[in-house]
Amino acid sequence: MTIPKRNILLKIPSVLYGVGVALRNFAFDNGWLLSEKPPVPTICVGNIAVGGTGKTPHIEFLIRQLSPLYRIAVLSRGYGRKSSTPMEVLPEHTVDLAGDEPLQIKQKFPNVYVYVDGSRLRAMAHVEAMPKEQRPTLILMDDGFQHRYVKPTYTILLTSFQRPFTQDDLLPYGNLREPQEAKYRADSVIITRTPNSIKPIQMKLLEGEMELQAHQSLYFSSMRMMPPRRILTDEQIGSSSHTIPPPNRGSEIILVAGIANPNIFFLRQKGEGYVEKMRFAFPDHHNFQKKEVESIIEQLRKHSNAYLLTTEKDSVRLYPHLLSVASEIQARCYCVPMEIAMASDAQAKLLTEIRNVLALENKREKKHEK
User: Fold this and answer.
1) Do 217 and 187 form a contact (C-beta atoms < 8 A)?
2) Rounded to an integer, what distance in angstroms lies between the CA atom of residue 152 and that of residue 144?
3) pLDDT for 307 beyond 60
4) Residue 75 in contact with residue 142, Cβ under 8 Å?
5) DSSP strand E in the chain: where?
6) Dihedral of CA 107/109/115/117: which sign?
7) CA of 193: how far to CAs of 331, 339, 343, in Å?
8) For the chain, does the N or the C end have fewer beta carbons within 10 angstroms?
């Protein structure tokens, strides 16, 4: 874990920011600002730091594990979208309408109800107003930890192994949106992007560093890289999809990443034995411009045997730009899906904990209805 150097001049505005955050939390803690209980059992997945901690992969992890038991809805603010209209996300929507992460989730899980709205309370009211036979039985609230107007049934707080909140400071001196004491609002904390080489003693030290309360659980997760898949379908590409094989060890690649930590993506691909010819790094949620895509395509023309490898989130934003390029190039454009991995005993413990809390909440709701 390497923490970058910080500008000491930012310490003063950081203190002022902290006063504002403390006053807001004090108002919620003392009932001056009210938190409302959602009408449907709700799991909040969030963090207290800006930048990537893997919220979307963890939402997808919960969808995979819980969808056999619940009718799931994902609520998101749809960060980066150009529309402010609350809406249900459909697979055919664009990033401008829905936002990249909600659209990615909907395209991967078509049976999950995905709704974007800047107001979580308004989104909850929308879900409550749905016909009972269509109404979700479980809500996953993406990036809602700071949205204290909603009181979730169960809260998961994420922090990255590379920069845990225990070794960070408030904005703008550090990356924290809230002081680390906010962790006590969580039911469980997951240290994400844990390296596979981590030793038990390191995990024990981190557990002590977190200083969680007795009722809170600590988990570790890592990112598992899945086989690359084409951004466009075989039907969209045509005959080239059958003549050009997928990338493998030794293949030339051109890397594109517009995420919070693009270097993590780049390093992962390096470890797969590819031969990197070029890389393009962009800010998180970057809206690709025509000239930028043309530069990427030009590199694919220059390196005629190279493949484009990008993240799933970036593939959603690149998709419309690739529809008009030559099929031979389309067939060489791939994204690399990532999935969450946890130790089997830890995963079983987390899911049991969640199911027990949700079962208790459902029991209370039924008793209340009577």
Assistant:
1) yes
2) 9
3) yes
4) yes
5) 42-47, 72-76, 87-88, 113-116, 138-142, 154-160, 188-192, 217-220, 222-225, 229-230, 252-257, 275-281, 307-311, 333-336, 338-341
6) negative
7) 30, 11, 13
8) C
Residues near 154 by Cβ (< 8 Å), separated by ≥ 6?
42, 43, 44, 187, 188, 354, 357, 358
DSSP string, 116-131: E-S-HHHHHHHHHTS-
Range of the domain at 292: 229-336
Residue 3 forms part of a structural domain: no
How far apart are the C-alpha atoms of 158 and 156, rounded to whole Å? 6
* End-to-end CA gap in the chain: 53
Same-domain status, 139 and 56: yes
122-161 residue pLDDT tens: 999 999 999 999 999 999 999 999 999 999 999 999 999 9
For 334, the token pair is 């791939």
What are the residues whose beta carbons fall under 8 Å from the beta carbon of 171, sequence distance 6 or more? 14, 17, 50, 177
pTM above 0.85, yes or no: yes
Is residue 243 domain-resident? yes
